[in-house]
Design goal:
Strand content: 25-35%
Oligomer: single chain
Structural class: alpha+beta
Shape: rod-shaped
Number of helices: 2
Number of domains: 1
Strand order of the largest sheet: 1-2-3
Largest sheet: 3 strands, antiparallel
Radius of gyration: 19 Å
Length: 117
């Protein structure tokens, strides 16, 4: 019983750390997919009235499981001509908390570049 009491906090910290890491990894995969979806939409929308808005909307809809107020989507293309590159960057904050203690905070960032069609 004494060994259980001594080991239980360490096991619980490890378990909750794994859960928190899994959540951050899931958010990273989500923003990676959002950047890809936004870049693809930007690549095929050069003749539209607002290609930047369409790319941002596509990225945001792809990341629908995240808090949209914290999700930042930027689209970079100077010319919007066929053959030029467009880059979509998605940024989302993360925090790893274990038992109410903040272990790590930062920004998850993913960028995707596609050639404008």
């Amino acid at each position: 019983m004494v060994e259980f009491v001594l080991v239980l906090p360490l096991v619980l910290m490890l378990l909750f750390g794994i859960i928190q890491f899994g959540t951050v990894f899931n958010h990273d995969e989500t923003i990676t997919d959002a950047a890809r979806a936004g870049a693809r939409k930007a690549a095929v929308s050069r003749l539209e009235a607002d290609p930047v808005g369409l790319a941002q909307a596509a990225a945001r809809s792809s990341a629908s499981g995240l808090d949209q107020s914290q999700l930042q989507v930027t689209v970079a293309d100077d010319t919007w001509t066929a053959g030029s590159d467009v880059t979509v960057t998605v940024t989302y904050p993360y925090t790893i908390n274990i038992f109410g203690l903040t272990v790590k905070t930062g920004q998850l960032t993913s960028s995707t570049t596609e050639r404008v069609e």
